[in-house]
Amino acid sequence: MPRCWTALLVAGAVLLGAPVHAQEPAAHSGLGRPPTDAELHDVLVGPDGEDLPPGSGTVADGERIFAARGCANCHGPTGEEGPSIPLVGGDVTTRSNYWPIQHWPFAPSIWDYIRRVMPYDRPGILTVDETYALTAYLLHRNGIIGEEDVMTADTLPQVRMPRRDDYLIPETWTPATRRGFEILPER
Ligand code: HEC
Fold it and tell me: Which CATH architecture has domain 37-166?
């Protein structure tokens, strides 16, 4: 058999074999790495809370964890004193991206934010239950849930945020949807 035919056959065999090999772990490629714990935690939970994991947390636990996990170092012993932004009360300001918890439209978003972003200096260290407890604590401190309310994957999405009705759900986008300056009110 001419050499070029042999080469073609080998190339064909390699190509045919490729999908099979692709499914095996690339043990010796030297590329990629397993995700870190922090990356595994980096799961988005949407405003409807559908992706909330099983777990639970109480207001009392949240108060304890707020101190134990160092939240108080930045937000103050009761979440109001700072030096960082207050987590209780507060007014909307156009000077920063600060949006007080009382103005957030969906409670699961608070859980999602705390779990992925806080504590600011060590994001990813909080467990699922700690995050439920911290969310419960902050919702209670903002007068949104009762002291005995327990936050779980079922109860958190049912929390009605006080300013929920100030928000409109955007219309489903189509190429005909008006945008940018087209939607500014006429002067
Ligand atoms: C090292 C300082 C620091 C620590 C520790 C910290 N935070 Fe924060 N936190 C911040 C800063 C700064 C912001 C504002 C971030 C921004 O707007 O980008 C913030 C924002 C927040 C917000 C969003 C508030 C809003 O209305 O926008 C929540 C909720 C929050 N932190 C909860 C916590 C909790 C719970 C902990 C403890 C697990 C914690 N933080 C620990 C610095 C900190």
Answer: Orthogonal Bundle (1.10)
